[in-house]
Amino acid sequence: MADEKETLKQYLRSLHEALAWKLDGLGERDLRRPLTPTGTNLLGLVKHVASIELGYFGEVFGRPAGIPLPWYEDGAEDNADMWVPAEETTASVRELLRQAWEHIEATTDALELDAPGLVPWWGEDRQHVTLHTIFVHVITDVARHAGQADIVRELLDGSVGLLPGNENIPEHDRAWWANYVVRVQAAADEAADQAAADDRESARNHAVGRDASSDVVATGEASGREMRRGDRALGDGAARAVLVRETWGVLATVDDAAQPYGVPVNYAYDGAETLLIHGAQEGHRLGNVRAHPRASFTVVGRARTEPQHFTTAYESVIAFGRVTELAGAEKRAALVQLAERLGPDDPRARDSYIDAGLERVAVLRFEIERLTGKARVGEQDTHGQES
User: Of 138, 140, 141, 371, which is least surrounded by CB within 10 A?
Assistant: First the structure.
């Protein structure tokens, strides 16, 4: 069964390599900070994986590694193996993962796949196991944690990939991925809207059978009053699609005298919650943002008048949020995104342009906290004859 054992070891080894790689290039804060409501963090995931492996490939087969794991001792707090206090170093967690793999190899080299073991914490009906069973169990468990690490790392800095040199995702630029995210979100919104419409129809039919007069009141309340023309509201995905498609909008700020100030600007959108804007190093806009960072940003798209109906067809989106001024590496990275969005497809010309103007421009990051959108479809749109 040597080949089967080597196959199992190979899969578990690749998961180890992936977990260790997910730690590369991050500072202490990002390695340890929680990214979910239950505190999931990268270094804690690696600490947990190494710890459980030392148990499953150690004590379960009467081969303890002799490595102290104080977070598993009596009296340790819940989840102590899932995070890393400041006094525990990153190097010590990496070393624990290395020691765990070393012990896995020693145990699997010494035993056959049908070697018996005992997992007392599994209960009497399941506690008698074989090395093969433990291999499958641990690979499954570690794969789940490696998937968590994939998501946490992408949330931290956008890095993705299966293993070093193997991203295992389609090769596309940021603009493609931004559009992809918008399409996925739009599909979710469409499905949710359809489900809500089905629920309203079901409730309406039920109410008609019960009391037609009360149905009028109920459906009137259910329609919502936040937007005066709710029939023109855009779903979140459709609103974000407008942000992706357009390239300019109006940034609205206020000064110390509460005087509003709106200025049209070009922008780049990341497909999620961030707009990037650049402009002069001084002026009314920048002064307002530094003193009063809360702002709104309005984008209008596909607008045209329809004189015969005394009206206008349009799409509009308003984002509400907070603006911060970028500096250093963040500033340059933002300028690269702006240049990719607004400039020619020429990396050399782009970098030259950025280097020449880096110190002369200010770059703002608009973090979207709330987004609303609405549209009026024109007569030409209704007939599929977009002008």
Answer: 140
Of 139, 134, 7, 136, the closest CA to residue 61 belongs to: 134
Task: Look up tokens 């090395």; give the residue.
Answer: 131
Look at the chain and report how many structural domains it folds into: 2
Local confidence band at 188 (pLDDT 50, 70, 90 cut-offs): confident
**pTM for this model (two decimals):** 0.57
Q: Which residue has the tokens 């993962």?
A: 97
Number of H helices, E strands in the chain: 12, 9
What are the tens digits of pLDDT across the range 125-159? 899 999 999 999 999 999 999 999 999 999 888 88
The residues near 116 (Cβ < 8 Å, ≥ 6 apart) are 128, 129, 130
The per-residue pLDDT for 228 is 54
- Pairing type for strands 311-325 and 268-269 reads unpaired
For residue 158, the cross-strand partners are: none
Specify the DSSP class assigned to residue 37.
T
Enumerate residues 6+ apart whose C-beta is below 8 A from 311. Answer: 305, 376
Looking at 117, 139, 157, which one is the last position of a domain?
A: 157
Share of the chain above pLDDT 90, in %: 51
Is residue 47 within 8 Å of 84, Cβ to Cβ?
A: yes
Q: Which residues pair with 132 in a beta bridge?
A: none
Range of the domain at 55: 2-157
Largest alpha-carbon pair distance within the chain? Answer: 87
Mean pLDDT within 292-299: 94
pLDDT in tens, 218-248: 333 333 345 555 557 888 888 888 898 888 9
* CATH assignment at residue 6: 1.20.120.450
Q: How confident is the model at residue 308 (pLDDT cuts 50, 70, 90)?
A: confident
Tokens 């505190």, residue located: 39
Is the separation of the CB atoms in 355 and 261 below 8 Å? no
